């Protein structure tokens, strides 16, 4: 039986990295977190005796190899700004060269639904064509192709095994980059939620803390490599229903301001991020819903948080943050 080696999280400081690290720590496994700056890594992982903190420069081959030295598995979570998606393929190419030079045995890319383009009927399984019609989808597809083409490449004294784990949109307590995080914050503060519409189309979200145990399992499941897999949420829900439940927990009626594609275009004249959201708005009108039957057959059933429980946890976290912020403001006013 092959020994379970050390895992490295490249691009670890984000929400997914912290969640996967928590699952590794809960399993009693040592892991390495890798990022450009030490301070956010110290803040997120400095308390965990299982964590080793390493900084890197992903533009320097020697730095990549040094960050990967001694690792059995690399989990790739490196993000780029939404208006710089062209950086994804060259960053992945450099990382693959560095990890193979370091003798890494396995690499997992946490992926998205972008490479599929428009769904030909939901839910979709892994054999759905990858035909992206957006620039971001094409860049993510090129990134994936590099990862999968590297499967079987010589790495140290062995061979590199690779896989892609594809996720839908995500949400979770305090996860600012979630499409719906602002709903929980607005409900907790009694303010109007700003949402990207349409909000009445069923959409799939995954409760991000649920992915940690799945990824930990995949790091030690040799049969999983050489392909891509889906990890789905618990069905679909509309954004309006998310808002209804969140505001109900606050004892309030929902207050929403919804920006559709036309408004995004207008806002994009002044805000680069809004401009970048326009081409991906098809996912709001023509959502992609994942079928993860294949993954469940491989690793068995996994725990998935219901929307009701997930929304409640997100609201509770937002309410706690709002109370802490209000307390800080009161203290500042008192000492002023």
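^ Assign residues to that structure.
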């Amino acid at each position: 039986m092959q020994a379970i080696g050390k895992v490295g999280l490249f691009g670890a400081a984000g929400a997914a990295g912290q969640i996967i690290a928590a699952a590794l720590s809960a399993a009693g496994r040592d892991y390495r977190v890798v990022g450009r700056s030490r301070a956010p890594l110290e803040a997120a992982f400095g308390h965990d005796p299982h964590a080793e903190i390493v900084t890197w420069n992903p533009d320097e081959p020697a730095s990549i190899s040094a960050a990967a030295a001694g690792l059995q598995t690399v989990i790739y979570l490196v993000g780029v700004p939404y208006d710089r998606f062209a950086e994804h393929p060259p960053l992945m190419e450099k990382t693959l060269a560095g990890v193979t030079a370091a003798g890494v045995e396995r690499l997992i890319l946490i992926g998205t639904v972008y490479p599929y383009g428009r769904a030909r009927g939901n839910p979709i399984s892994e054999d759905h064509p990858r035909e992206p019609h957006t620039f971001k989808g094409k860049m993510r597809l090129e990134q994936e192709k590099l990862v999968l083409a590297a499967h079987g490449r010589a790495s140290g004294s062995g061979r590199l095994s690779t896989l892609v784990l594809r996720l839908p949109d995500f949400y979770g307590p305090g996860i600012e980059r979630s499409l719906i995080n602002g709903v929980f914050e607005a409900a907790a503060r009694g303010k109007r939620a700003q949402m990207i519409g349409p909000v009445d189309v069923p959409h799939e979200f995954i409760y991000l803390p649920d992915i940690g145990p799945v990824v930990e399992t995949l790091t030690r499941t040799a049969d999983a490599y050489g392909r891509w897999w889906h990890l789905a949420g618990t069905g679909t829900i509309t954004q309006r229903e998310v808002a209804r439940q969140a505001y109900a927990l606050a004892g309030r009626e929902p207050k929403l301001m919804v920006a559709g594609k036309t408004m995004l275009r207008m806002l994009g004249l002044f805000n680069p991020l809004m401009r970048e959201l326009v081409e991906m708005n098809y996912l709001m009108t023509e959502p992609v819903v994942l079928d993860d039957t294949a993954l469940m057959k491989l690793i068995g059933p996994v725990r998935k948080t219901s929307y009701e429980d997930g929304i409640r946890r997100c609201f509770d976290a937002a309410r706690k943050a709002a109370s802490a912020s209000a307390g800080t403001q009161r203290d500042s006013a008192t000492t002023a």
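The two ends are 64 Å apart (CA to CA).
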